[in-house]
TrEMBL record:
<dbReference type="Pfam" id="PF10078">
    <property type="entry name" value="DUF2316"/>
</dbReference>
<dbReference type="InterPro" id="IPR018757">
    <property type="entry name" value="DUF2316"/>
</dbReference>
<protein>
    <recommendedName>
        <fullName>DUF2316 family protein</fullName>
    </recommendedName>
</protein>
Length: 103
């Protein structure tokens, strides 16, 4: 799936807003997801090469925002059931298995 420039911009903003509502630090997010801060930054800017990784971050942030007693900001491009997208590995997403390395 390829996002157009407006979808990329919206998704970056939605990830950032949900991160802010989570009450977590970037280091906490990176530690929870077992990734480096470099990789996390690439995810927040959607420059990460794996298609699964942004969905993992999305789901993680939604969960943390809800645990914080707040309503997550709705995503406009990363929507629907990831199990139904042929280009995503739903098992990897469900298990929160980020791709290896910083790319």
């Amino acid at each position: 799936m390829s996002l157009n420039s407006q979808q990329v911009s919206n998704t970056i903003n939605e990830l950032h807003e949900n991160f802010m509502h989570s009450g977590l630090s970037k280091q906490q997010v990176a530690d929870d997801l077992h990734i480096s801060l470099i990789k996390l930054q690439k995810l927040f800017t959607l420059t990460q090469s794996s298609l699964n990784d942004p969905w993992i971050l999305r789901n993680y942030l939604i969960q943390k925002v809800e645990e914080n007693g707040k309503n997550p900001v709705a995503f406009t491009a990363l929507v629907g059931d990831w199990h139904q997208y042929w280009f995503l590995n739903s098992h990897v997403i469900d298990q929160r298995q980020m791709s290896a390395g910083d790319n």
